[in-house]
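Usage

Read records sequentially. Each one opens with the input sequence:
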Amino acid sequence: MPNLDTGNTGFMLLCSGLVMLMTPGLAFFYGGLVSRRNVLAIMMQSFVSMGWTTVIWFTVGYSLCFSGDVGGVIGNLDMAFLRGVTLTTPSPTPGIPLIVHIAYQMMFAVITPALITGAFANRVTFKAYMAFLTLWLLFVYFPFVHMLWGGGLLQQWGALDFAGGIVVHNTAGMAALASVLYVGRRRVVEGGPHSIPLVALGTGLLWFGWYGFNAGSEFRVDSVTAVAFLNTDVAASFAAITWLAVGWWQEKRPTFVGLLTGAVAGLATITPAAGYVSPMTALIIGIAAGVVCYFAVALKNRLRWDDALDVWGVHGVGGGLGVLLLGVFASTAFNPLGTDGLMAGNGAFFAKQLVTLVLSSVWAFGFTYGMLWLIDRVTPVKVDRTAEESGLDVALHGETAYLDAV
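and closes with the structure output:
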C-alpha cells in the first residue's frame, strides 16, 4: 500500500485488540455482580454481541456510519458488505488502511449495546434481547456514530466527542434507564454480587482496554495520543478513590465494589474529553465523576429504579457529565485541532455540547422505550416468574456456571 504508516497502523491494530478485550471484561464485570443462577445469561449477552454485532457491522453497519450522508443523520449503503474495500482504500486518517478503521470502529459497536444489559439483568428473554440488539444498533448507535464521527450534522456543527461520551456511554445509559422503566422491577431480590473477584477481573480488563478506547481514538501516535492515555488513567484513579471515600463516609465502611465501580465511572466520564483536555482537568473530571455518579446511583436507589448494575448512574450520568465538562474545560493547548471551552470564553461550544447531550438523551431514551414496546408485541420481553425464580442460566440456556447453582 502506498504511503502506509506502519507505526500508526500497528498501533491502531493493537488498540482494536484492546477495545475488543473490553467486551469480555464487561462480561466478567457484570457476571460477578449478579447471582450464581444468572451469571451465564448476563455474560452471554455480552459475548453474543461480539458475534452478531460483527455480522451487522460487516453487512450494513460500517456503511451506515461512514459512507455517504443522508440528511446529516445516517450514511448510505454504498459500502454494504464492505463493497469496494481493498488493500489500498484510504481511510479517514492518512497512512492507515481503511480495513483498520473498519476493525477499530467495529469494536466500539460491539461493546456499546452490551453496556445496556446490566440494567435489565435477570429479567429479559434472549429472543427479545437479540431483537433489541439489532434494532438499537440500527436506529440509535449507527445514527449517532454518523452524526458525530462520520461527517454528520453534529460533527459539522462543531460538537465534539473524542472517544464516545455521547456515542457510547450517554446513549447506552439513557437506553438502560428506558429499559428499566419499561421492563420493571425484578420479582426475585438478589443478595448482592456472587463473585467480587470476577468484578475485579472485569474492571482490570476494562481499565486495560480503555487505553485503546481513548488513546486509540486519536488514530495516530502523537502528543495527543499520549495525553489521552494519561488522562484515562488519572481520571479513573481519582474517581475510584473519590467513590471509595464518599462511600466510606456515607456507608461507614470502604467497599471493594465501590472502588471498582468508581474506576469505571471515571473511565466513562473522561472518555469524551480524553484527547481535548489537560491532565489537571482529567483530575477534576475524575473527582467529579466519583461524587456525581455515586449520588446518581444513590438517587436511583431512592427512586426504586431497578437498574440492576447501575448502568444509568455510571455510564449515562458519567458520559453526560464528561460531555458537559469537555464543554467547560476543552483546551487547544492540549489539542490544537480541538477547541477552547467555556473557561476560555467559548460559551458557544458549551452550548453545543449541552444541546448534543439533550438530543442524544431524548433520542436514546424515547426510541429504546418505544422499541421495547414493539418487541413486546412480537415476543415477550420479560421472563416469566418461574424462569426468574429458577435463574436464567437454566431457564433460558439449560446451562449452569456452578454445580450448586441449580
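Summary fields computed downstream for this record:
- The chain is about 65% helix and 0% strand.
- The mean pLDDT is 96.
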